[in-house]
Amino acid sequence: MARKPIRSDLGWSTVDRIFVRGKDLPGEILGTLNLGDMAFFELTGRVPNPKESRLFNAMAVNTRMAELLLPMLSLPFFVPVVMAAAQSSARLMAGRLVAEAMPWLRILVAYDIVFVTACTLAFPYTLDE
After folding, report:
1. Is 4 inside a domain boundary?
2. Of 15, 25, 35, 44, which one has the fewest beta carbons inside 10 Å?
3. pLDDT tens digit string along 71-108?
4. pTM > 0.70
């Protein structure tokens, strides 16, 4: 029985690409949208114009529901990791070759390197004496 590909309007992937709302994640989103714009894009399906961006980012900064806002705004950063983990796990658990899961494993390794480096560099600034 042939498997039906899993696809959602929020995001999907191919063997070598990850798409969020129809836009290529590394080619069209990363480096061009700030965190507030990405959250607006995830919620509405379109990139905000400059006035909407300014308003949405101001609301994000001044919200009283900060404990709910952080998970919502950080979700776009975690989607690629979850997708890569799910894809690589599915391939490995199905008994396929490791080479078939390698593109997804590379994404996970890249995220590990970026976040371990960023946390190591930011750690000294988070502590006060």
Report:
1. no
2. 15
3. 777 777 888 888 899 999 999 998 899 999 999 999 99
4. no
